[in-house]
Amino acid sequence: MAHTVEEKKKLLHRVHRIMGQVAAIERALDQEAECSDILHNIAACRGAMDALMAEVIEGHIRYHVLAQNGTATDEQARAADDLVSALRAYLK
Which pLDDT score is estimated for 54? Predict the structure, then answer.
């Protein structure tokens, strides 16, 4: 899915961070931490998942929806930018 080596590294870094957050949730549950602490950990994990989702959706739009051979019109490029912005705002 990643369209460049750098994008792949960035996405994998996000996944590793999410894995750490999920592990923290598991530890908190196992140690019977306060509900508020567990909820904060879950919210942080959800935010990280939403950020990963936004990155993948943006890549899909830019590399699979818009033509990569330079034939996309300015209007199509603006529409893609608007869609990406709307999705990022929704996923925050």
Answer: 92
Q: For residue 77, what are the contacts with CB-CB under 8 A and spacing of at least 6?
A: 66
pTM of the model as a whole: 0.81
Superfamily (CATH) of domain 5-90: Metal-sensitive repressor, helix protomer (1.20.58.1000)
Determine the Cα–Cα distance for residues 20 and 45; give it in Å rounded to an integer.
9
pLDDT tens by residue, 27-83: 999 999 999 999 999 999 999 999 999 999 998 888 888 877 778 888 888 999 999
How wide is the angle at C-alpha 7 spanned by C-alphas 25 and 84, nearest 5°? 85
Contacts 24+ apart (CB under 8 A), 15-24: 15/52, 17/48, 18/45, 18/48, 18/49, 18/52, 21/45, 21/48
